[in-house]
Amino acid sequence: MLGTTTASVKSALQRAHARLEEVAPVAGQIAEPTAPRARALLDQYIAAFENADTAALERLLTEDAVIEATPLRTWFAGRETCMPFLRSRLLGSAGYWRQRAACRSGLHP
Q1: Is residue 1 part of a domain?
Q2: 44 in helix, strand or coil?
Q3: For residues 22 and 67, what is the distance between their CA atoms, to the nearest angstrom?
Q4: Is residue 109 part of a domain?
Q5: What is the DSSP letter of 51?
Q6: Which residues are registered as beta bridge partners of 67?
Q7: Do the domain assignments include residue 57?
Q8: Could you give the C-alpha distances from 19 to 11, 73, 80, 82, 104, in angstroms and in order?
Q9: What stretch of H or E contains 67?
Q10: Whole-number Cα distances in Å, 5 to 10, 19, 47, 72
Q11: Taking phi first (over 0 means left), then psi (-120 to 50 degrees means alpha), and beta for anything else, what does residue 76 get?
Q12: pTM of this structure
């Protein structure tokens, strides 16, 4: 149906698993943001993503936003490049995604 072989699918999954192992935070690195501005921004982002609100999401993303979409062999840099990918390939409709508020310790303001 996808026009690919079992071997290529397994290979893509192995690459994706390896990449996730490289970038996955360990339990001690995950924390709820406590700074009021950071928390408000995160809450707005989560609401925009979960509601598939592309206009709100576009306002929230910085100009230098980057998306790395494992196992795809590409990445998107810049809001103007990221938004079409989010609209057409990722967001879906309202309620399709659920997110949890957390970030790596030391990375939030």
Answers
A1: no
A2: helix
A3: 16
A4: no
A5: T
A6: 76
A7: yes
A8: 12, 11, 25, 20, 17
A9: strand 66-68
A10: 9, 21, 38, 16
A11: beta
A12: 0.57
Q: Please tell me the total count of domains within the chain.
A: 1
The CATH number assigned to the domain holding 18 equals: 3.10.450
Residue whose entry in the numeric block shows the structure tokens 């309202």 = 94
Neighbour-count burial for 40-79, b at 16+ CB within 10 Å, e otherwise = eebeebeebbebbbeeebbebbeeebebeeeeeeeebeeb
First-residue to last-residue Cα distance in the chain: 46
Give residue-wise pLDDT tens across range 37-77: 888 888 898 899 899 998 998 888 887 788 877 666 778 88
Assess if residue 46 is contained within a domain: yes
Domain range for residue 100? Answer: 6-104
| pLDDT tens profile 77-95 | 888 888 888 888 778 788 7
Two tokens at 4? 């690919």
Q: Which residue has the tokens 């310790």?
A: 105
